[in-house]
Structure formats: structure tokens, C-alpha cells
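Input set for joint prediction.
Command: fold jointly, output C-alpha cells.
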Amino acid sequence: MGFSKTIHSALKASLKKDAKNPKSSSLGLVHYSHVPDLKTIDPKFKGSGVDSKVKGRDTSHPHSFFYRDNTDPEEIVVSRAPYRYTGQIDTEKNKLYDLGSDPQKLIARAKSRNQGVLDMDLVHEEVKNSGHAGFFNSNHPNLKNVVAMYGPVDVSIDSKYKKTEDMEKNTLRNIGAGLAIAGALATGTPEKADAPTVPKTKISQAATKTPTAPKATAEPKAATPKFGDEYSTKRMLHTIAQVESSGGRNINHAPVNSPMHRGNRAYGQYGLMPVTIKDTIKAHGDLKSKHGKALALDGQDFHNYMKRNPELGETVAERHVQRLERQFGQDPSKIGYAWFQGIRGTHDAIKQKKDIENHWHVKKIRDAYKRGNK
Amino acid sequence: MDIKQSDIDTVESAGVLDGQDVKLIRLRGGLWMAISKTANSIKEKVLSVGSHPAIVKFNVKKQFPNFQMAMYKSEVFANEPEVEDHSHFLSEDLLKSGYELYSLQDNNSIEFQISKNGIKEVSVASFIMEDSLFVNKTEVKPEFSRALAGAALEKTLPNGIKKIKIQK
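C-alpha cells >
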């Protein structure tokens, strides 16, 4: 057959032989959009459609996202897209690279070019230079079925597909949680990549074609402000600063002796741990290009760097709160818990039905929030 | 800060900030400063001081992202070097005392400068050849050695340098 060795078996299953040309292999792709009458899905318009939140992720290697045909799309994407487009690619001519198994060690090579730090731009460069037209991640927990293409793909509209009002309403308020495929594909860990952890609705193939199926059963609960006044990121940040450092007055944080933090101290008025700051820098192209060298710093050097770049602390705190909002909604309790216990710890706590509301840190957050810090 | 005309060695344009000209002044003592009028003041304000015009402009840009540097090169320094701040490697005490550490890279030559309140105290020359950074051996106070080593190491990252060698 001559399939590219890099094509994962999951993809192979969906390859169909072209009857006229048995040597060619075609892969059906599906793209959702709010733009009508598209003939081509072109990566140069990345971030202008359903995935508008991807816009901020600057890359010099733009790529468009597709779902493999006959697989479940994400509800967050479907809910915002009135149009469904289908296309085919010839995987003999357009080889796809599996970032999950990384058979040619391209990720390792990209890392070695950047002092061991993963830079997705370098990974894209390696993937493209090794003759691949796109990529997927067979190791991703939820998005194995996503394929990214560096070049334009010809498509035709699925005329049977129509979006209903239900779908439109559904999850619009959770736009922030949507489509973080780029980072998720890269790392395979949704948490690191801001991938949505919105409960995934099983949408049957029929449902994706007929518009009535995606009911609100899996709709994430609307994040309702609990404390009267309207929620805002600014207010949440102010609340965190009050709890962590009395509004910036006590910023000499004690060392944290957990295995993860290894005696490191939190930084600044928001009490951000170095590992969180570094993760946030890594996850945002603009921060990484400007402050990438902070990733190699530790201890006092790292704190000095933060002090000399005060705008970085503010930006990181804001981006981190926004990330938590995407994960947990505009819920001060959960955000407060996640600020202290991390995203994974909070998801675990929710899963294990822990009493988050009565956690001492959450109580402090809620009290500070109630005091009407604006 | 009141500057008398007799203190000024040279004046040139550094760029524009919010529609106001930013001037780069070299004082007779060797200190460089960027000054500009702010929107609501008649008097010019010092935006940044440093031991090298490129460092001064680097810090104005960092402080005021709207600052647009003059397109033409400095008349004094025909080739404007690339500036990188490595001051985070200095101890807290040195930082509090006004010390800063920058590197100025002009193609393959890199100068590491330690200054105190904008006045140059230490200069270490180095150059890149193939995959090595050759650092000229310079007598420096022990309290600066760690920071200089950190700065040299940090310069290896973007330049693909594998070895640092000290030249006698």
C-alpha cells in the first residue's frame, strides 16, 4: 500500500481507497465554520472562524483543523458552526505526522534545538521540513480524531447539515473554553494546553448530520456569579491579590516544600508559583518570544527576572485566571481552589466530590470576593 | 534633574514617544540619557539613563512600548548593538545598590557591561567563533563573577554556542 509509516492505525481505518486509483489513499476530513460558501479551508484564515480563540496563538506555521470523517466532533465547535464542510486528502501526497508516537523523533529534535524546551514553532518546522503536510496526535486523550493541515484543503458544503437554535444557544457562553486543539495536540495534556475540560457530549454521526441531537445534557453549567455583583476577571485578580498578599503588601512568600515546588517561593502580589508562571509563558507565543529565557531561570534569578519585568507578572496572572475561567467557569470558589491546588487538583477534587466550598483557601477567597473588591 | 548646557557632550534624536521627540543626550561624564516632554508638561523628563545609548533606548522601549526608535543609526555608534538584560543574575544586594548587567552584541562580538546607576564599572569583551564564545580574561570583583557567568551562558542559548572559553 505504501502508506506513510507515520500514519497512525486509527487514521488508517478511515482511509478509503480510490476505486479509480487503487494506489492512492484518501482520508475524509470535516471542518466546521460559521462562514458560508467556502470552497477551500485555508490556514491563513486560522482563528477567524469557530476557533477565534486560537488567534492569540501566534505561529509562523499556520494550520487549519479538521475532524476525521465519521468521528465525533467537539460540542463546543459544533455549537458555534452553522456550516459543515467535507473534503478529502490523498495521504500518499499529503503525509500526516503523528505527534503522539513521534516516530521520527521530530519533537525530541525540536526540543534539542531549544535547550530542551518545547517550542511548537520548531516542531512545526521539523514536521514540515520532513515532508509532512499536516499532523495529528494519536496520544491525545480526547482529540485523536483531529487532523491539522498546513496547506489549503478543497472542501464542499454538507448541504444536509443545518444548525439549530438549540445548538446556537448551547455553550456560546463558554466560548473561552473552546477549541484549544493546537496546544492540546502538541502536548497531549489538555490541562497544559488550555484544552477545554467541558464534559464531552457523545454526538452520534447521525447527530452531526441532523441538527436536533446535541441537547443540553452535556452543556456545562453556566457560571453564575455567587456574590451578587457581576463577575469580572479584574475583580477576581483583585480578590486573589487580597488573599495572597493583602493586595501586594506582603509579597515575601515562604518557600513551598512540596515535591512539585521543591522549596521555591511564590512571586508577587498574586502568589504565583514559578512553575505556573513558566507554564503560562510556554503556553502563549507572545510571552514565550519575549520572555522565553525566564524558562531557564530558577530560584533568586527567576525572582529577579520577574521583578525587572513587572508587566510579566500582571500578564501571567491575568492569563492564568482566564485559563481557570475557561476550565471552571466564572466561579470564584473553583478558581480560588484551582489557584491553590492547580487545575488537575481541582478537577480531581470535583470528581471526588470534595467539599471545595469549605476549603480554607476558598473561604478566604469568597470572603474577599464578598467584601466587594472592585 | 537639572542639566546645564556645559554638562552636555552630544544630543541626537532617539525616536518618538506619543508624538513627542525623544532626545538622546551624552553627558561629559559618559552617562547617556533619554529625555522627552510628556503630554502635559513643558519641562522635559528623563525617561532612562545608562552607560550606552543602546541600553538607554532598550529601557525606554521596555518602559514605554509605544516608543518608536529613530530609524537611522546613532551618529556616535554607527552600528547599534543588540541589547539583552542579564541583571537578574546579580545578587539582590547588588540590584538594590543600582547595579545592572547588560550584553551588547554586534554581530560576533559581545560586550558584557556592569554599570552602577548608569555609569559603566566593568566591561568584559568576548566574541563568537564557530560554536564557542571566547571571553577575554578580565579582573572582576568576585561578587560579579556569578552574574557574568550566567550572562555568558544566557548568550549561548540564541547563538547556538556549545562552549565558553576564557582567553588569556
